[in-house]
Request: fold
Amino acid sequence: MTAHFGSCLCGTVSFEVTGDFDGLYLCHCQFCQKDTGSAHAANLFSQSAKLAWLSGEDAVTSFTLPGTRHNKSFCKLCGSALPSTQIPGLLNVPAGSLDSEISMVPTAHIFSSSKAVWDEGLGDLPKFEGLPD
Ligand SMILES: [Zn+2]
Ligand SMILES: [Zn+2]
Reply:
């Protein structure tokens, strides 16, 4: 059994995921653009892995967009994305919430039909290891 560990930005919430992920999807839908503030979400999914909160479970809240299955769990204190079990039988773990490394590479881009207009050729941009000089 593989164990993965993660936490929120302020450190109040920490969790462990035991088991394997089935896929890592980069979702470009408009809901994910809004709730990440970025070009896409990066979510790991598993039908078999188990989630255990190690600390701060009281600080975990979630939002489901009415009329949709779009859901985000997050820390009440710092807003960081956290694992969600809102869809029965499917664990959703935001890839950036993990502190341990995963060997899985992204499976696919999804909802690419609604991707941001500036989300094009991003791999070709100049790269700085920190802030630009
Ligand atoms: Zn937090
Ligand atoms: Zn999405």
